[in-house]
Amino acid sequence: MENLISIKNLTNEDILKIMRMADGFEKKKIKSSVKDKNVCMMFFENSTRTRFSFEMAAHNLGLRVFNFDTQKTSLSKGESLFDTIQNLSSIGINCCVVRSKESIITSLLDTNMRFINAGEGTISHPTQALLDFYTIQKHFDDLTDKKVVIVGDIKHSRVAKSNAELLSRFGADIVLAAPDYFQDNSIKNVRYSENLNEELKDADITMGLRIQKERIEENIKFDDYIKNFQINSSNINKNTLLMHPGPVNRDVELSSELVNSSMGSVILEQAKNGVYIRMAVLDMIIGGKR
Ligand code: CP
Fold first, then answer.
1. 121 and 135 part of one domain
2. How many angstroms is it from 49 CA to the middle of ligand 1?
3. Do residues 145 and 75 both lie within one domain?
């Protein structure tokens, strides 16, 4: 595997191998195979969890980390991204971790660089789905027939798309619960619902999503959204695993009370597990041998 672009490009065996490697790194049973290699963090969109966990993962593996300041490179002088990447490769960068507003990695695959998608517009966020699966595996032995309710702004969510692809392949029943203006009817192997309260009653896993105000063009009545689609103590099933990729809009998609409760602690577990998953992915893509 030379690049990680999408969950669609991974076999189930690839995914399980990443899980085993993440577990090995977490338990300190395996060592880095990429010490002293060079990785570049190329973030064209803002990030806290993904960026810092990739950087932490890289440092843990003994990688040298280079940050691509998008405002201070020769991209601003009109150099193409393709030429930029070719030059970074010649200088010695082995892999670029890329977050972007639109799909750019596929147009760069003819360069000598290796790539990891760290979140691509509304399209995909493979390492988030991998860390979510890793987190779920710590709470459930088997995903077969487990009901996963993904709630909210499905339309703009790369997390929902990558999770629907990955979790359905491991046997989960996925329900996308959202008002029609946030639905995306192109997602396969899922059921669509507008009845959040009914769906949450028997949800094994409840995954909230951030309302992505920066991507919303429609005129949405947020008060109505909160009334009908907020996850809170009045509709949550106390036995469900509550997840959210972050950042959370407190008291919009998720009540602050739930975030602060013991159920909300899984959200920080997700952030922590991101480090082990990203160690596994960096080691696999840059090392390429394990
Ligand atoms: N979950 C996630 O991608 O968060 P960041 O945007 O902070 O990286």
1. no
2. 5
3. no
pLDDT tens per residue across span 78-96: 999 999 999 999 999 999 9
Question: From atom 3 of ligand 1, which residue's Cα is the shortest distance away?
Answer: 50
Structural domain span for residue 227: 127-270
- For residue 17, the domain's CATH number is 3.40.50.1370
Q: Look at residue 130 and tell me whether its pLDDT is greater than 80.
A: yes
The reply to whether 278 and 236 lie within a common domain is: no
Q: Give the β-pairing of 205-208 and 147-151.
A: parallel
Tell whether the model's pLDDT for residue 290 goes beyond 70: no
Other C-beta atoms closer than 10 Å to the C-beta of 193 total: 15
pTM here? 0.97
Closest Cα to atom 1, ligand 1: which residue?
245
Instruction: Report, in this order, helix, strand and coil percent for the chain, each rounded to 5.
Output: 40, 15, 40
Ligand 1 nearest-atom number relative to CA 274: 1
- CA nearest to 55, candidates 64, 46, 130: 64
Tell me which residues have their CB closer than 6 angstroms to ligand 1. 47-51, 119, 128, 245-247
| pLDDT of amino acid 253 | 96
Q: 144 and 104: one domain?
A: no
> In the prediction, which pLDDT does 289 show?
57
Q: Cα Rg for the chain, rounded, in angstroms?
A: 19
Mean pLDDT of all residues in 23-29: 98
Q: In the beta sheet, which residues pair with residue 186? A: none
Q: Does residue 165 carry a pLDDT above 90?
A: yes
- Distance (angstroms) between ligand 1 centre and the Cα of 182 equals 20
Residue whose Cα lies nearest atom 6 of ligand 1: it is 47
Residues 134 and 243 in one domain: yes
pLDDT band for 288, please (50, 70, 90 cuts): confident
